[in-house]
């Protein structure tokens, strides 16, 4: 297991070892990403984003357009456990969503 060493500035001279995975999670939040497809309509994708993620109509429309033209769009950031719930709900509506 790879470990990084960090100094505890509250107690000078005392070292703390923190696992790299924990640091990675703190520095880089996960992103929930929707992917473009050839069968869901813009209106349906907008509806699902509003229903599942509580996006405004404008937010949802912008995400749908970005996914259409770029192939995917990050729609939410957070911890993996929190995003997993949203990913599953979006997938249940027939829209491909992943966590990156």
Tell me what you see in this structure.
With 100 residues, the chain is of the alpha+beta class. It has a single domain (29-99), classed as Ribosomal Protein L30, Chain: A (2-Layer Sandwich). Helix content is 47%, strand content 28%. It has four helices and five strands; from the N terminus they run E-E-H-E-H-H-E-H-E. The protein has helices at residues 20-27, 42-53, 57-70, 80-92, and strands at residues 3-8, 14-19, 30-35, 72-78, 97-99. The strands form two sheets. A three-stranded antiparallel beta sheet has the order 4-3-5. Strands 1-2 form a two-stranded antiparallel sheet. A hairpin with a 5-residue loop joins strand 1 (3-8) and strand 2 (14-19). It is globular. It starts with a strand and ends with a strand. Residues 1-9 and 11-15 have low confidence and may be disordered.
Residue share in helix: 40-55%
Strand order of the largest sheet: 4-3-5
Query: What radius of gyration results from the CA coordinates?
Result: 18 Å
Strand content: 25-35%
- Shape, per Cα inertia axes: globular
Tally of helical runs: 4
When the domains are counted, the total is 1
- Unreliable segments of 5+ consecutive residues: 1-9, 11-15
Could you spell the SSE succession in H and E letters? EEHEHHEHE
Largest beta-sheet characterization: 3 strands, antiparallel
Q: What CATH first level would be assigned?
A: Alpha Beta
Distance between the termini: 23 Å
What's the name of the CATH homologous superfamily? Ribosomal protein L7/L12, C-terminal domain/Adaptor protein ClpS
Average pLDDT metric: 83
């Amino acid at each position: 297991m790879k470990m990084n060493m960090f100094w505890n500035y509250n107690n000078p001279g005392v070292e703390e070892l923190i696992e790299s995975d924990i640091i990675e999670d703190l520095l880089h939040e996960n992103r929930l990403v929707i992917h473009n497809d050839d069968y869901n309509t813009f209106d349906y994708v907008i509806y699902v984003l509003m229903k599942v993620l509580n996006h405004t109509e404008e937010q949802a429309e912008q995400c749908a357009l970005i996914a259409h033209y770029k192939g995917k769009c990050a729609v939410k950031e957070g911890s993996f456990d929190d995003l997993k719930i949203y990913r599953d709900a979006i997938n249940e509506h027939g829209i491909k969503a992943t966590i990156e």
